[in-house]
Design a protein that fits this description.
- This protein is mainly alpha-helical.
- The protein has a two-stranded antiparallel sheet.
- It is flat and about 85 Å long.
- The chain folds into two domains: 9-41, no CATH class; 71-144.
- The termini are far apart.
- Helix 3 (97-106) packs antiparallel against helix 4.
- Helices cover 68% and strands 11% of the residues.
Amino acid sequence: MPPHKDILFIDFIIIEGEKNIMLKLSTKMFITIALLFILFSVPAPEAKAMEPISLAMMAAPIVMPLVEAMIPYFVKGSVNFVGAMADVFVDLAGFMLLPLGMFEATLGAPFGLFSYGLRHMGSGAMAPFRMMWSMCRVPIRIFTG
């Protein structure tokens, strides 16, 4: 009876001259050895590659009319991207309103800057959410304008 009732053992008897050698393999080990044998007995496929330059020379006559047709859309998308990123950078600058507002509300309070400080702190606290909204709108603005 095998030591573990849930594992099936396979017995191999190797006969060398007058000695008998008994080899016990679990089913899992037997399957692993069989799979490794199969894996390494199959030859690797040969790589068939072309030079990138000759591939580009063959594809150029087909691709160039498509590229020329896409140029206006690419330019429009690039201009829209620059505009969208400008909005993101404006919202990024809004992060600095929070420390400015704290400075105005604390040290600038004797000089009448307390209300400006509260306004700037509110804008600075909203800046991360505005920037997140602007970042979500960047892909949409690239394609729609």
